[in-house]
Design a protein that fits this description.
The protein has about 100 residues and is an all-beta fold. It is built from no helices and four strands. It has a four-stranded antiparallel sheet with strand order 2-1-3-4, with no helix packed on it. The structure holds calcium ion (2 copies). The site of one calcium ion has 4 residues, from loops.
């Protein structure tokens, strides 16, 4: 007997700017035990903590002992901590002000 699972995603500390909300239905063929669901992840440029979102399932057809499985996806940040810099300038004493970048 095939198992049919409706898949939805739910935001956690990861929001919709961090991954693409995904709603799909997957069929696990009889004799198989798993399928993979692809959920696009956004590679942003913001330094941030690792973030998570939830993938929920609703078994709509099949013979399973549970009907509401869920899992957590952890997105590990790959952006470095920003650095604050203050530039060096040389200014004539008659300039009035020093503009420091
Ligand atoms: Ca992010
Ligand atoms: Ca990031």
């Amino acid at each position: 007997m095939d198992t049919v699972v409706e898949i939805t995603t739910a935001t956690g500390t990861a929001g919709t700017s961090d991954y693409t909300t995904t709603t799909t239905t997957v069929t696990i063929p009889a004799g198989n035990t798993s399928v993979n669901v692809s959920i696009p992840i956004t590679d942003d440029t913001t330094d941030e903590p690792n973030e998570t979102f939830t993938v929920n399932g609703n078994v709509t057809s099949g013979n399973t002992s549970n009907t509401d499985p869920s899992g957590t996806v952890t997105i590990t940040d790959n952006d470095g901590t920003p650095v604050v810099t203050i530039g060096d300038v040389t200014v004539d004493e008659g300039a009035g002000t020093a503009s420091v970048p």
